[in-house]
Amino acid sequence: MNHLERTFESTPQSVQEARGFVTFAVGCYVDTARTDDIRSCVSELASNAVLHTDASSGRYTVKICVDRHGCVRLEVHDYDHVQPEASAENSDRDSTNGRGLFIVEHLSDTWGVESSPRGKIVWSHFAGATQSGMHNACEAPPEDTPTAA
């Protein structure tokens, strides 16, 4: 199983960096169409982290896990304790923002939000193209799993 993580400064420019990081992390393991879905989801989640991260921390972390079946778990850790609504529905069709979780919900197989000691984790899962269902990567890695920075 491949576990990678990287911490980014909480700036609008970092969203592009997060997309590049995720592309590198899944490139050899996941087909192109699924990679595009994962890149779109990390863009939305990283944008939310930039928008909502506590200014004193000034950063967020992206973690990506890929198993041998091509199943992917994407996590964005930020330092905001306010959790988004469990539903990704957007009731205001004229709004110019607020559609990020709707996109994540529709591109990933499942997604959710968990509390963490420093804030929250918004995660999404992507089943492998050659296998149905979820596999090892779709579960949170153990806390003591070594990761690449």
Regions with little confidence, pLDDT below 50 for 5+ residues: 144-149
Q: Helical segment tally?
A: 3
Q: Write down the oligomeric state.
A: single chain
Sheet of most strands = 5 strands, antiparallel
What is the name of the CATH class? Answer: Alpha Beta
Coarse structural class:
alpha+beta
Which architecture would the CATH scheme give at its second level?
2-Layer Sandwich
Order of helices and strands: EHHEEHEE
β-sheet strand percentage: 25-35%
What share of residues is helical? 25-40%
Q: Strand order, main sheet: write it out.
A: 1-2-3-5-4
Could you say how many structural domains there are in total? 1
Number of strands: 5
Mean pLDDT: 81
CATH topology: Heat Shock Protein 90
Question: For the terminal residues, how far apart are their CA atoms?
Answer: 16 Å
